[in-house]
Input
Amino acid sequence: MRLLVVEDDRDLNRQISSALEAAGYAVDRAFDGEEGWFQGDTEPYDAVVLDIGLPKRDGVSVLEAWRKAGRTMPVLILTARDRWSDKVQGIDAGADDYVAKPFHMEEVLARIRALLRRAAGHASSDLQVGPVRLDARAGRVTVDGQPIKLTSHEYRLLSYLMHHAGRIISRTEIVEHLYEQDFDRDSNTIEVFIGRLRKKLGVDIIKTARGLGYLVGVDEAPPAR
Output
């Protein structure tokens, strides 16, 4: 999953971004409204953390511009605790949720997980496909109850595929949602990660749709006779 953090306080931006990266997300950063608007308008983010009080262009107008342009990614806005009007403006502009400053980082992480779940149509932070279970809250993967050790990139890839289980995901989409903006993107590396995941999981849930991409799912058992 690839996220954007738009916050002009560089220390806070770094803290939020570092926490999200530690939780297994790819994170891009912007430090003013113009930069944030442009990145959100041109890159396919899975979710955005957006401060309301930004220089050059305020967060509400950035969000309104995204929604008018048809950008539907979930947006979590950051507001001042004593400015209830900011919360109302943000929600009316198209925000999906808000967190008031000062906040606990665990709350931001929990709300991001919830937004990503809802966007993918899931009600729980536990994703299950066959014997493979991904606990997004703990960042843990198990197969038949046994923990599987994955690298950060392997976890990101599996998480994205499992959030969109049952849908064919192209290599291009995977690359766009797996790597930060300044990462050296190479779609050929996806095949390497897929191969490693299949080997580590040891079960056949990652299918190749030849010429189209990959799909996570299990083969349905034939009907009993």
